[in-house]
Amino acid sequence: MKKLWNFLRSMRFGMVLLVVILAISFVGSIVPQGSEAMWYVQNYPNTHRWIFRLGVDHLFSTWYFVGLVGLLCANLLLCSVVRVGRVRKTVRRQVEEAAAVRETAPLCAEQRALLETHLKTARYHPAEAEGCMVWTKNRLGFYGSFLTHLGILLVFVVGGVVLACSNVRDYTAYPGQDVTLEDGTVLRVEDFHIEDEAGNLDFTSHITVTLPNGAADGPAEIRVNHPHSFRGHKFYQQTYGTCGSITVTDAAGGSDTFTVDEVCFLSEDGVSGVWYEALYPGYVRDEEGNFTLITSTAGAYSDPVYQVLVCGEEGRTPVLAMPGESVEVGGLTFTFNDPISYPGIRVKTLPSAAIGALYGTFVLLIFALWLSFFHIPVAVAVRPEGYAICGAKPTGITLELGAVLGEPYAPRSSSEKEKEESTC
Prior knowledge:
With 424 residues, this protein is an alpha+beta fold. It has four domains: 2-79; 85-138 and 376-423, TATA-Binding Protein; 167-240 and 343-364, no CATH class; 242-340, Tumour Suppressor Smad4 (Sandwich), CATH 2.60.200. The protein is 36% helix and 33% strand. It is built from twelve helices and 22 strands. Strands 4, 9, 10, 11, 18, 19 and 20 form a seven-stranded antiparallel β-sheet that branches. A five-stranded antiparallel β-sheet has the order 1-22-21-3-2. Helix 3 (37-43) crosses helix 4. The longest helix is centred in the last third of the chain and has 23 residues, at 352-374. The relative contact order is 0.14.
């Protein structure tokens, strides 16, 4: 049981958990998250069953990912945070441990004065202990490892709070129209296309965002897996759709254009008009001139066909109409326009306080890494007969003092000194 406990709080276990979490996160960055089930069926025809079975479509909220993050947080808490007392003890004992070192490099009076002058100039802090002067520097570096573990722990904890407090809403935004979000922010889709110039699928929107205080941003481009952030809002290219467009003109020349994406009846008197039923992405014509309608497509509507019922005094007449064609009924002219492709925009709103806290944890983590790699603690014990360098990585200070004194650092033990003196 003790071995299991030691393994759970060990650095090795923490590294294994971190590697597994990073691998899962990499998969989550490749596979778009939160899309509709049919989207995965169309884009991952061979693997969509495993995507649904393993929850890869919502990977970061699956039980195993949350469990791994929880284990990593527990490991960080056990292997570092609770050891802060041990770190403080190490800081307090640094001077005593340096004074206890008996292996010193010899110093003459001139070198001793030169060494002490350099240590003062380099802002080392002196302290007396056991008949010698101990000069210390970068003592805050002892907390580098502790703060690094604490920073990683806070990143996960605060990141989880941010995800829990975030508000996610999906909006259908037609190009050229404004959509008002819950907080009064206005989202406008300037344009949207399903395919690029080469005919490849490329779901791209250009959006403009205006906050309630008047601050504006854009036009900004968003694509699948390439969202856009602005002042606490994050905009994702989530879904897409295509709807019909019908312009109705009366006898006086007045007109109005209607966007139709579901079954509806366009009429002035409630009797005569056009009953819109469906919009098909294309058709196939056989040798005899018969049409076969294409019911689905993953790309743009290449040859769209409107299916409607024209309702008049003579009854209802089924009609298949192409863009640009018109029908007249009840004194009105119905003109079928090119279909409109529109995006589904997912908006994630994050609380500013939580975002500020998350940025603060990143600052803490960067500071901790700087302490760990560039603020390494060091102590120099200076005695009448010589000096000793103490530290976890003394190479830098060894070269530095060697250059100041004009000779390499070569410490000798007390027994070596006695043997040399007796020989002389």
